[in-house]
Design goal:
Elements (H helix, E strand, L loop, with lengths): L2 H26 L3 H7 L12 H7 L4
Length: 61
């Protein structure tokens, strides 16, 4: 495993995380009626305890 291979995988992981975060922000910015229609969970602004982030990220924070 070369150093450049490791850096490439790390860069790809960062790019994937950024894309996922951008998608989540876009879905959370939709009106609640549309979120409900597409089956998106309650946005974070309505969930003060952070359950949505734990659900999406797979870990309790």
């Amino acid at each position: 495993m070369s150093m450049f291979g490791s850096l490439g995988r790390y860069g790809a992981a960062i790019k994937h995380a950024h894309s996922r975060s951008r998608s989540i922000r876009a879905l959370n910015s939709l009106p609640p009626e549309i979120q409900k229609d597409i089956g998106w969970p309650v946005s974070q602004r309505d969930d003060p305890r952070g359950k949505l982030s734990a659900l999406l990220l797979g870990s309790a924070r």
